């Protein structure tokens, strides 16, 4: 007698899309990638999302950014990032005459900067790069700026450059004469002036990209918020490669964020504690403000902090400081999309993105904004 053949079905393990890179994909029509900012800044659209912890989730509201004072409450506290974008993109040439493009990332030592260099493979230690002055604004042309490759950086694929700065000045003091403000690669046809890629409250030079949620504010709007008892406090996070580098590993929980420098001063910590004690909400202006605040509270309680953070926020994160967020619309499969998903849920966020696409909201750095209230 033939033995009975038993057919078994192999079970496919269920994939947790909250922790999978594939769970953060969406398709965006190219025409919705904003190439220029709106004018005035606060005339951008604002999609408002309530995210109560209990009860029925309400449908998003569609407002204008200048409506913000009516959408927040007296006693709320806005946390702004006062970083300032530096002219971090430089164009130069090697001693052979070959053209070079350099994107400064961060200063590692005095006038020694980590940078991405194109084309990068041939830039070995000892290679020298000459940067001619741009001669803008009818300023007297300074002498040439030069840099020497002194090391490689496997983590970023970049190079460590030692700059020989005219008159021994700090590099940041002469960058206006040699560099340009670096716009993100998806902005390909912009006519925006440099100051349109800075927040109106930018003070601390060091970022290579703007904290774009702050681009919607005008001095008049900030005053109106203050008049209504919605105060502001500042942190600094110098936006670097950690913010815009894509997540490339399928298991997002294994992604390692690059470090970024943050400062959360004592006055801001005191304002946050006083606001929470009085029942007010902490509203972060941008994901950079979120990372700074939550990074400074990594031990459990918010503390004054000055240093680097590699905090990576994705669904399941236990929030310590932030009660709400003002943010732009983010790229698919990005760490920023995962951070916002941690606030309101991945499926709900992607559903809201589809609604925004259908209503032709403008996406990314020069695009429209969202207000998310937990």
From TrEMBL:
One of its GO terms (biological process) is tRNA queuosine(34) biosynthetic process. GO terms for molecular function: S-adenosylmethionine:tRNA ribosyltransferase-isomerase activity. Monomer. It comes from Nodularia spumigena UHCC 0039. PANTHER family: S-ADENOSYLMETHIONINE:TRNA RIBOSYLTRANSFERASE-ISOMERASE. This is S-adenosylmethionine:tRNA ribosyltransferase-isomerase. It catalyses: 7-aminomethyl-7-carbaguanosine(34) in tRNA + S-adenosyl-L-methionine = epoxyqueuosine(34) in tRNA + adenine + L-methionine + 2 H(+). It is an enzyme of class 2 (transferase). InterPro entries: QueA, QueA_dom1, QueA_dom2, QueA_sf. SUPFAM superfamilies: QueA-like (SSF111337). One of its GO terms (cellular component) is cytoplasm. Its EC number is 2.4.99.17.
């Amino acid at each position: 007698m033939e033995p009975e053949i038993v057919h078994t079905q192999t079970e496919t393990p269920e994939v947790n899309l909250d922790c999978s890179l594939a769970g953060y994909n969406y398709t965006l029509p190219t025409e919705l990638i904003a190439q220029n900012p709106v004018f005035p800044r606060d005339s951008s659209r604002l999609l408002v999302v309530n995210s109560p912890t209990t009860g029925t989730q309400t449908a998003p509201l569609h407002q204008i950014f200048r409506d913000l004072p009516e959408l927040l409450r007296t006693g709320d506290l806005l946390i702004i990032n006062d970083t300032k974008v530096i002219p971090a993109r430089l164009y130069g040439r090697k001693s052979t005459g070959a053209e070079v493009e350099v994107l400064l990332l961060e200063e590692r030592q005095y006038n020694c900067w980590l940078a991405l260099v194109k084309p990068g493979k041939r830039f070995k230690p000892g290679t020298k790069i000459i940067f001619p002055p741009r001669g803008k604004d009818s300023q007297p042309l300074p002498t040439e700026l030069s840099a020497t490759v002194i090391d490689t950086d496997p983590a970023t694929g970049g190079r460590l450059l030692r700059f020989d700065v005219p008159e021994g000045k700090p590099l940041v003091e002469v960058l206006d004469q040699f560099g340009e403000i670096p716009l993100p690669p998806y902005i390909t046809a912009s006519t925006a002036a440099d100051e349109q890629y800075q927040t109106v409250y930018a003070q601390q030079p060091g970022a290579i990209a703007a904290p774009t949620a702050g681009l919607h504010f005008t001095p008049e709007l900030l005053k109106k918020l203050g008049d209504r008892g919605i105060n502001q406090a500042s942190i600094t996070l110098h936006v670097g490669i950690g913010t815009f580098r894509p997540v490339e590993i399928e298991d997002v929980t294994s992604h390692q964020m690059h470090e970024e420098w943050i400062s959360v001063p004592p006055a801001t910590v005191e304002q946050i504690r006083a606001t929470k004690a009085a029942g007010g909400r902490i509203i972060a202006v941008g994901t950079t403000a979120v990372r700074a605040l939550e990074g400074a509270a990594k031990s459990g309680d918010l503390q004054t902090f000055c240093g680097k953070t590699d905090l990576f926020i994705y669904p399941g994160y236990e929030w310590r400081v932030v009660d709400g967020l003002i943010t732009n619309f983010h790229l698919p499969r990005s760490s920023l999309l995962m951070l916002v998903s941690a606030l309101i849920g991945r499926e709900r966020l992607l559903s809201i993105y589809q609604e925004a696409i259908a209503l032709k909201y403008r996406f990314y750095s020069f695009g429209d904004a969202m207000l998310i209230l937990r």
